[in-house]
């Protein structure tokens, strides 16, 4: 399957992820995420496999956008939004692109809005993609 086919769950960084419409505020590698969440790194790997977190390879290392991990928690609505996007046929690269595409009706991007009072609206929009 190619990177552009919906439903392809690749961990490699296709060009569509390297050229996101808006870059995350930073990238965390998996040991940093494990430290932030105060969990073993194996738990972070499990969260990625379960779709509760999204990670892509950047410079040969699996990384997670920093703003998706708030303090000692993954953003509350992130796992639900990722599930909705995957159910709509988005692969990880496409889901990341959607999360980092600026939207004038939100404060910045859906990823940024997930950490604020617009999280429910982001979930609603992700759900609508499946129809």
From TrEMBL:
Chain coiled-coil ranges: none
Region span, Disordered: 1-28
Domain of life of the native organism: Bacteria
Pfam families: Rv2175c_C, Rv2175c_wHTH
Composition bias, Polar residues: 1-18
Stored InterPro entries: Rv2175c_C (IPR041098), Rv2175c_wHTH (IPR048576)
Entry keyword annotation includes DNA-binding: yes
UniProt KW DNA-binding keyword: yes
Name the UniProt record assigns to this protein: Rv2175c family DNA-binding protein
Organism: Luedemannella flava
Higher taxonomy: Bacteria, Bacillati, Actinomycetota, Actinomycetes, Micromonosporales
């Amino acid at each position: 399957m190619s990177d552009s086919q919906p439903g392809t769950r690749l961990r490699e960084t296709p060009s569509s992820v390297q050229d996101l419409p808006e870059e995350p505020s930073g990238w965390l590698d998996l040991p940093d995420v494990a430290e932030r969440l105060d969990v073993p790194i194996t738990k972070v790997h499990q969260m990625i496999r379960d779709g509760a977190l999204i990670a892509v390879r950047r410079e040969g290392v699996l990384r997670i956008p920093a703003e998706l991990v708030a303090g000692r928690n993954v953003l509350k609505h992130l796992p639900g939004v990722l599930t909705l996007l995957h159910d709509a046929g988005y692969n990880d690269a496409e889901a990341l692109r959607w999360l980092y595409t600026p939207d004038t009706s939100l404060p910045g991007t859906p990823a940024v809005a997930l950490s604020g009072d617009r999280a429910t609206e982001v979930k609603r929009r992700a759900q609508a993609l499946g129809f």
